[in-house]
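thread: overnight batch results

M.L. [08:02]
morning all. the overnight job finished for the chain we discussed friday. pasting input first so we're all looking at the same thing
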Amino acid sequence: MTGADIKAKVVPKFMGMLQQIAGAIAVQQRQAQFSDVTNDDIRTHIPKIIAEDPALAQVIKVLPAPAQFILAQTLTRFAKNAAPKAAGLSPEAPKAPPAAPVDALSEIARAILANAKKPGAPGSGGGGALDDVVTLLKGMTPEQYEAYRQQKKKDMGL
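M.L. [08:03]
and the structure it wrote out:
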């Protein structure tokens, strides 16, 4: 086995591990940021949302796991916030008359999908400092990686 063979096997595995770690960190940060949404809430609300708009199930299936969690958590947050409003409840008027039936979950899901197609602010791309490096390294062949590594060693004076 040559060095190139080892690189061909190790580099993709290393990139996969980096992606898994980055995804796990993103999910953990998201859970800490929105601690009002539990996994039980997600298990309760997402099946209802998908039943109302089956196209969302297809969208969720094609996303990577961290993005699936973030989307599910966001939809659940909106559903939890919309449920009291759809029932005609508000903090100011706890016993308001019932509102007309509203398909709030489906409307929220459609709004999210519509907004997902719009460009965001330049600084709202998310991601960390390593995203560009990971993307760059992920697309490299072993030969390109070796040239990149040698150039970085040269740049650092090693």
